[in-house]
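User: Can you help me understand a structure? I only have the sequence.
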Amino acid sequence: MRFIEYVADKWVSVVIFVIVFICGGGLLMLIETPFAVACVVEGFYAAGFFLILIQDYAARRGFYDRLLEATEGVEEISYLSEFLEEPNFLEGRLLCRILKKDEKYMNDRLAANEQELQEYKDYVETWAHEIKTPIAVSRLIMENNRDDTTRSLAEEMDKLEGFVEQMLYYSKGSSLNGDYRMRVIPLKDLVMKAIKGQAKYMIAEKVTPRFENLDYEVLTDSRWIHFILNQIIANGIKYHTDERKAELVFSASRTGKTITLSIADNGIGIPPEDIERVRRKGFTGENGRKYGKSTGMGLYICDTLCRKLGTELIVSSKVGEGTVVSLRLAVAPEEINSNIS
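Assistant: Let's start by predicting it. Here is the structure, written out as tokens:
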């Protein structure tokens, strides 16, 4: 806070002082007070006023400067009062008390909302796990009664299970901390496991997988990366074209301490204006509107999980030629050490 700003704020007090100062001087002249005495009296009056003004400015400036510094340096404004000391002027003390009451109210509301959100997430996760039992029982019944109807039902059950799994991972995505374990895993094993999970879908849509240079080991969480690969593969299958034989090419390359796994399809591709938005929550884009059955959540959840795992997800595409989704994974420590030695 600058002194000129403070004086401007106190303009009423300054105007009153000037009026009283002039009136006092006039009164002294009317009672024929010697000029030197009148000057001394007026000088003391003016000095007293300006000293009070300067002292008040110094006290307020220190408090408000600390307040502004605290708002810039604290990430959680709701804890601002913890960094402030009550000043020696009334307005500042009142402000501190109001801040404390307001922060307590805000923190109580936040705690209640967090508790409510956690209870909701716990319910969703419990429901997602419980629904797997009737799905498994339904699969068993269909396996024991094979015909065209049950085969169609099995396909729909696969989709249902995929949506349940997507919901489960979405609910866990915001609180991934403590729910993953980083391990050294062969990259080829990760890819083959994901391919196996999508085998029926790939066979039905006549999509051929191809593998190039996957002999690496990476450091990641197998469960979460498996879900991410499943979503990417499902998108590659979903948006294929009938104009040519559908393929999914899995390839990897190493740069320093990073392994880049690329999954390339030769499908319809993504329009340039949609590339930067495909990872937004609920964004379906032109392809989603054209082909339908798109929730706009798959890549959003994948991107969220990748950021939690420290994995970069990159999407590139060309309309009519296909899409490439790349994952930048950490190299396994054993491979780093062997290359150094």
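Now, to help you interpret it: The mean pLDDT is 80. The chain has twelve helices and seven strands. Let me know which part you'd like to focus on.
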